């Protein structure tokens, strides 16, 4: 049996690795082990519970106001003994978090091959997203197997002369969506269960990126206030990330406002089905940029660039920046112009068909000659 240790620590990694972990468990010749760093605690556990993933190892690293150095050093020192105990044939990491970078480095130090899921994304700006751009470059450099969501991700890696296997699989987030979205879905969250989606148009808002801390958050939140004033049928639902750098300004500016619902982070199945019932999405999240086009929901990206240009090229996503006036103007277009709205919502989803996990398992089996 080929022993595969998946190492991850945050909510988006858990959601995107869970379908793959289940698929590894179903694939003859592969054995799955899971180690969570718990760089996130509550938000990670929420995601694990939805998919019924029980970690074999839990490093329980999260601390309030943790620094990047805290996470990096905690993962590096904590993972060594786990790698020694389990001696996996392959370590899998995902995406661009500091957990992923440090886990890939720890595996390299132990001379264990690393597979990178969601490989090859690039913004080509080392400080945006920060520190994710350099994390993902280093993950790719440390890995020998690269599972790319799209062909253009694979092209990025080939252009860098990347060593090892580079293969296009689609994004496992679409596998997760297919597992969780249901027409007859009932929400766990009492607030969402009681929400009347037929009473008007609802916008799903999320924002958590480090580059948006401070002035950009203020601009984004002011645009939200202006939109609710200008459009009486409009409601916002904002599941607020647990980072105090997000919760504090979000509740200060948007708390106790008519037609703006702030809630704690919700389970992935609630979020995906909530997205399915919304008119459109305003977000700085990476995962939401991939999920919303698969559900036919236009996305306005609250950033100045994206490492996910495919859905922008297909017309499903627009990068609108972080200025109040720009966000207000671009959202207004989609609220006022039904043809513009239809064009975005009918654009093709470029991130896969829900079979990425299967392709990754086939590629691993072939690579190791199973
Ligand atoms: C991390 C990732 C980012 C990813 C995001 C997904 C890095 C450097 N950043 O950013 O790439 O987009 O996760 O959400 O890897 N907290 C809680 N409970 C939780 C989670 C977080 O209280 O369940 C609070 C803690 O105070 C923690 C803080 O949020 O110290 C920041 O968490 P951290 O993982 O360092 O950064 P994120 O902004 O979440
Ligand atoms: N998500 C969730 N509950 C929420 C908000 C988001 O389950 O309240 C999911 C979302 O569907 C996506 C992932 O979390 O799969 C995105 O995580 P986040 O935006 O924190 O990180 P990013 O994708 O930007 O790294």
- What is the N-to-C succession of helices and strands? EHEHEHEHEHEHEHHEHEHEHEHEHEHHH
Described by its quaternary structure, the protein is single chain
Q: What is the spatial order of strands in the main beta sheet?
A: 3-2-1-4-5-6-7
| Mean of residue pLDDT values | 98
| Total beta strands | 13
Describe the structure.
It is a single chain. This protein is of the alpha/beta class and 370 residues long. The protein is built from 16 helices and 13 strands. It has helices at residues 11-26, 42-51, 68-86, 98-109, 132-142, 151-159, 172-180, 190-194, 215-230, 244-254, 268-277, 286-294, 310-314, 324-336, 338-345, 356-367, and strands at residues 2-8, 30-36, 57-58, 90-94, 114-117, 145-148, 165-168, 201-206, 234-239, 260-263, 280-283, 299-301, 317-319. The strands form two sheets. A seven-stranded parallel sheet has the order 3-2-1-4-5-6-7, with helices on both faces. Strands 10-9-8-11-12-13 form a six-stranded parallel sheet, with helices on both faces. β8 (201-206), α9 (215-230) and β9 (234-239) form a beta-alpha-beta unit. Uridine-diphosphate-N-acetylglucosamine is lined by residues 10-12, 39-43, 62, 64-66, 68, 96-98, 131-132, 208, 241-244. Uridine-5'-diphosphate binds at residues 11-12, 15, 173, 206, 208, 239, 265-266, 268, 271-272, 285-288, 291.
């Amino acid at each position: 049996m080929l022993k595969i240790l998946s190492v991850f620590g945050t909510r988006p990694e858990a959601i995107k690795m869970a379908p793959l972990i289940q698929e590894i468990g179903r694939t003859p010749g592969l054995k799955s082990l899971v180690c969570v760093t718990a760089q996130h605690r509550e938000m990670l556990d929420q995601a694990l519970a939805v998919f019924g993933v029980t970690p074999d190892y839990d490093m329980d690293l999260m601390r309030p106001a943790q620094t990047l150095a805290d996470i990096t050093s905690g993962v590096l020192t904590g993972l060594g003994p786990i790698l020694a105990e389990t001696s996996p044939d392959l370590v899998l990491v995902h995406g661009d978090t500091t957990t992923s970078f440090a886990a890939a480095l720890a595996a390299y130090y132990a001379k264990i091959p690393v597979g990178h899921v969601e490989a090859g994304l690039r913004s080509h700006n080392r400080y945006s997203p920060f520190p994710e751009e350099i994390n993902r470059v280093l993950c790719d450099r440390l890995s020998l197997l690269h599972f790319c969501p799209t062909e253009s991700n694979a092209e990025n890696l080939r252009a860098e002369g990347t060593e090892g296997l580079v293969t296009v699989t689609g994004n496992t987030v679409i596998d997760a969506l297919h597992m969780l979205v249901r027409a007859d879905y009932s929400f766990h969250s009492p607030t969402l269960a009681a929400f009347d989606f037929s009473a008007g148009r609802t916008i799903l808002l999320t924002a958590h990126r480090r580059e948006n801390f401070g002035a950009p958050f203020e601009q984004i939140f002011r645009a939200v206030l202006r939109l609710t004033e200008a459009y009486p049928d409009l409601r916002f639902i904002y599941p607020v990330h647990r980072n105090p750098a997000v919760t504090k300004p979000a509740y200060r500016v948007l708390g106790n406002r008519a037609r703006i619902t702030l809630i704690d982070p919700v389970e992935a199945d609630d979020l995906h089905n909530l997205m399915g019932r919304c008119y459109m999405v305003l977000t700085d999240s990476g995962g939401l940029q991939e999920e919303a086009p698969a559900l036919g929901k236009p996305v306005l990206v609250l950033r100045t660039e994206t490492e996910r240009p495919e859905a922008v090229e297909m017309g499903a996503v627009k990068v609108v920046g972080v200025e109040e006036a720009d966000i207000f103007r671009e959202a207004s277009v989609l609220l006022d112009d039904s043809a513009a709205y239809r064009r975005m919502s009918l654009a093709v989803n470029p991130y896969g068909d829900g079979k990425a996990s299967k392709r990754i398992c086939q590629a691993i089996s072939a690579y190791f000659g199973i």
